[in-house]
Amino acid sequence: MGTPASKRQAARKPDITGIALIPLAIFFVLALVFPFLPLGDRGAFLLQIGFFTLVAGIMALSWDILARSGQVSLAHAAFYGLGAYGYALLLKTGMAWPLAMPLAALGAGVISLVLGAVTMRLSGMYFAIATLAFTEVVRTVIQNLPESVAGGANGLLVPALLGGNSRGQYLLALALLALTAGVSLAVRTGRLHHAFAAIRQGEETARVLGVSTVRYKLAAFFISSFLAALAGVLYAGKTFFISPLDTFSLANSIAPLTTSIFGGLYTTLGPILGATVLRVAEEALHNVVKNGYLVVYGLVLMLSILWLPRGLMGLFRRGKHGGDV
Amino acid sequence: MTAFQGQELIIENLAAGYGKIQVLWDVSVRVGPGEFVAMIGANGAGKTTTLRAVSGVVRPTGGSIRLGGHDITRATPTQIVSLGLGHVPEGRELFGLMTVRENLELGAAMRPEARAKQAQTLDHVYSLFPRLAERAGQLAGTLSGGEQQMVAVGRALMGRPSVLVVDEPSLGLSPLMTQTVFGALKAVHAEGVSVLLVEQNVGLSLKLAQRAYVLENGEVVKEGTGEALLADPGVREAYLAL
Fold this sequence. Notes:
heterodimer; A: mainly alpha; disordered N terminus; disordered C terminus; B: alpha/beta; Rossmann fold; 10 strands
């Protein structure tokens, strides 16, 4: 009995305390109030930025959940696109949207298991390349389906979500981001956290410790792609037009990655904050530096990665280490 | 007192390898319940491969492995851990970006009966290694080699194993730290855990172990009590340079 029991007790508590959840709660309260503010004549525009910020948050956070299991994927555009196309195709069969939305996500989740099984033994660069190739394969398949089915290269029209009600769409996106955050927290506090962290840091050691790596890696794929597909559904229902090139664009795979790194990897709040700051910064820069705003944007991103290796979350937890919230 | 229940580990005529390269030809090792057994041998003799086969990471091509009455020759690592095997891997293999406490918790996370007793076992590990209680919140990667080895042993203990296999714990440690780690293994054994220790530090292992096996080119060439092997002229010449 070296140290007092009370001290050990404190040391054993999980890192997620009520305090760590407060910033997250504040974010959601602000995001909920936002569409009801008097936004003036630019309200519709601001609400649209808000909507796509939420979608970007779902994409980044769902990507992060997969990354926690050591799988740095470039297949997020594929999951996003599968969600968008699955949703559009299901609606074409006459299905009601509240049913088509989860079914499209489920479909993307199941397809992601195939990718997960194929890439099971790959890691690092090889894994990333394989997932990138997967995205191209899915895009090519969809593009080459008969035009009467999926519209080919011309794309598909999708009925507007909630009859085009912007505020309703925004609130739906917010609800889905809340779902994603809930899943992320559940992963963080449950057994998946230990399994994912172990696989990420040393797969063979994880195995000798009894972690069923196959099962957990597939679980990560399924969860991540299910959520990313929901983001794809939101996108399809908002823009009411999807095409293979836009939906499966590499940018949709890269953005979640940069957003998570910028916000703070392996955290729940980080990717959400990252999405918010980056989207707002992008729009603001677009206003100020009309042409070449992407150059400035890239520069800001580079500098912040240099100075904030732990992302925005590093600002909150300066000096502390361990336990990703 | 959270005593451990040692079980029997029986390796019979084990053959295994990597792809076309056969490493183990005929390895038979028995660790009785609560026994401390060492396996010694030169680099490349097959010591680590034997342990990896026991853990299920390497598939045996022949022979059998039994743990506490269960045939684990073809079992998956997850099943083997759930049957009570603890593995302290070569080179420690800690999760460097996690805290000491998280590393320890991980050791208990995958076994329901270990998870149920996690708090209790954690206290126990801290009393075995008081140093780890002091460093609970520190990143494992920032510890000294000896402390890391303590975490690796503690992490395996968190799974409440009945048999602990330990791969080369003295690797990269100072003689003084090696003594400390070996002392800890002795304490673990005193709790009732069966221990199979693989080591290149032959002198120290033979002093500590009740029985030992000498492995050469994938075969067991000698076995006996630690003392008998320490006195064996062949062993002294080959491994102790005496």
